[in-house]
Amino acid sequence: MKPAELPTPALVVDLPTLEENVATMARRWPGESLRPHVKAFKSTALAKLLDRVGHHGFCAATLREVEGMADAGLGADILLANETLDTDRLAALARRDDLRLTIAVDSIETIEAAAAGGVGEVLIDVCVGLPRCGCEPADAGRLADLARDRGLAVRGVMGYEGHIVGLEDRSDRRNGTDASMADLAAAHQLVGGAVVSGGGTGTWDLNSSVTELQAGSYTLMDTAYAALDLPFTQALTVAGTVLSVNRSRGFAVADVGLKALGMDHGLPRVEGHDVWFCSDEHVTFAPRDETPWPSVGQAISVLPAHVDPTVAYHERMHVVRDDEVVDVWPVDLRNW
Amino acid sequence: MKPAELPTPALVVDLPTLEENVATMARRWPGESLRPHVKAFKSTALAKLLDRVGHHGFCAATLREVEGMADAGLGADILLANETLDTDRLAALARRDDLRLTIAVDSIETIEAAAAGGVGEVLIDVCVGLPRCGCEPADAGRLADLARDRGLAVRGVMGYEGHIVGLEDRSDRRNGTDASMADLAAAHQLVGGAVVSGGGTGTWDLNSSVTELQAGSYTLMDTAYAALDLPFTQALTVAGTVLSVNRSRGFAVADVGLKALGMDHGLPRVEGHDVWFCSDEHVTFAPRDETPWPSVGQAISVLPAHVDPTVAYHERMHVVRDDEVVDVWPVDLRNW
């Protein structure tokens, strides 16, 4: 099948572009020095592609992602890079012999939950500037001691410079990363352990202090990351069909709307067109300059602004090589 | 089960509030004068509640919604209030004897698709100011003639004043609705037929010219519509769990993020708190004024800014009455 024949809206992954992104990242972060973040693509089929090139450890953001990765035979070394209080589901995961699970903890409560759930290993999650989870760097040693008191193995620290990864200016990104990683190193001094986990697609070549990089968006990319000076190319589009053309009012409409796109980073892009707005099931756009008017029924490609919440709306990705759909990957890690 | 015990994030519907919203709307638009739009809630269980109070006709925005409603025995009179070129799926729907389907058309191409798919009935979709689908009012008669030439029954017109429904000032909404409905009336003059379909939650008591109101958001509501002077109350929240509290930096974090919330209308609300931002699986917020600091593990409620794309992320809604979960409704109409 041709991608232009897909029922729309539909996620489309350009496989050669994805493979090139994966190869570029693997040259700088080979094997287990990269811990790909499955939250960006939520597909065990895509994770298997990464596993085949040597990345055997993964990051997850939800328990559902951990469970799904283990079910798919990819549980060799999963880091739940997030806090949880769900001792029941942790206990079920702790009983599995096909899973090595490490979880992030940043408080007495999350340490008690890990211990009660029978999780063996943790990282101390450290706030390195992003106002999200993570303890104060100076408090990391106390929490590590507490975790060890509770019988948990502390593998090290993690800290995500999420407030830095999207900065457009490269020197701002470099300086911000250095400051964040100084905080993480200070915490690591207090905690010990072999692992210093952090970083992301936006700081992939600026963060040189982590022992493992947590990156996921680099695989499929989005317009937000494409605005930076990164060597990764957008592999993901949402295929749509033009439903309506109104030349007198100067716009056209396709069937890629709010329910097919993560909107937190703003409007998607349509090459050669200005996007006016999205509603539930529509994107309204207008041809720019020399771009010819589209016709009703024509296939179009929409470039999402933020990959993670876009993928999470879809049941499957259609994998394309040389203008043929060569595979279909279920988005099997969505929901919680 | 108590709603505070649900695994999070989870959609929670307060049933008494929903029932009150439904009753308020049904007093003004009883029976089939209301054509509830299932895109707002994507649940046949909620649609059945509306069917039981006399609303037997429904609007859908996708073919999946049409198929699911028919499968659930709710296919008495479904309007696909959207354009489609998918003749294969239309043909499959046209063969069903448990479905009366009317579809919106606004071009030669969509009329040809309806005829090729064997759909018997259409409405001429008219642009009444919102730059989305819909023909020019003056062109509606020509399209109706063309549709009749192709053997389609033209039931009338539809036109959605979507650029008006969210205006905060009531007189702006009134004047905008009047202007839009004048355009729709002019088109109706050219088209004929018994049906004039339009309107929405924001113009529910201002639009007096349609023969049937297309409203869906009034059932569950959201913070965007709650900012207007409407008698409908928010029945939908996203239940979350506080994962992390950082008093020294002044914020707390819960597990309700971008993948649990439609973000096109901006940040969600947490009562008594200022919401700072959302990331994939987190909302960061800070207590306001007298609000006490939350504790790790505490249950919180997040109020989404836009109901439709919020619901579309979730597998199910948990229905609550008197602080007990009394039912679980699958979000069985999501995807396409």
List keywords for this structure.
homodimer, 336 residues, eight-stranded mixed sheet, seven-stranded parallel sheet, 15 strands, elongated
Explain what this protein looks like in three dimensions.
The structure is a homodimer of 336-residue chains. With 336 residues, chain A is of the alpha/beta class. The first copy, chain A, has 9 helices and 15 strands. Chain A has helices at residues 15-28, 44-52, 63-71, 87-94, 108-117, 140-149, 170-191, 223-226, 307-311; strands spanning 10-14, 57-60, 77-80, 101-105, 121-125, 153-159, 195-198, 212-213, 236-246, 251-254, 273-279, 282-287, 299-302, 316-321, 324-330. In chain A, strand 3 (77-80), helix 4 (87-94) and strand 4 (101-105) form a beta-alpha-beta unit. The longest helix of chain A has 22 residues, at 170-191. Chain A is elongated, with a radius of gyration of 21 Å. At the A-B interface, helix 5, strand 9 and strand 11 of A face helix 5, strand 9 and strand 11 of B.
Task: Describe the structure concisely.
Two copies of one chain form a homodimer. Helices cover 27% and strands 24% of the residues of chain A. By secondary structure, chain A is of the alpha/beta class.
Provide the fold topology.
Two copies of one chain form a homodimer.
Chain A: E1 10-14, H1 15-28, H2 44-52, E2 57-60, H3 63-71, E3 77-80, H4 87-94, E4 101-105, H5 108-117, E5 121-125, H6 140-149, E6 153-159, H7 170-191, E7 195-198, E8 212-213, H8 223-226, E9 236-246, E10 251-254, E11 273-279, E12 282-287, E13 299-302, H9 307-311, E14 316-321, E15 324-330
Parallel strand pairs in A: 1-14, 2-3, 3-4, 4-5, 5-6, 6-7, 7-8
Antiparallel strand pairs in A: 1-9, 9-10, 9-13, 10-12, 11-12, 14-15
Helix pairs in contact in A: 4-5, 6-7
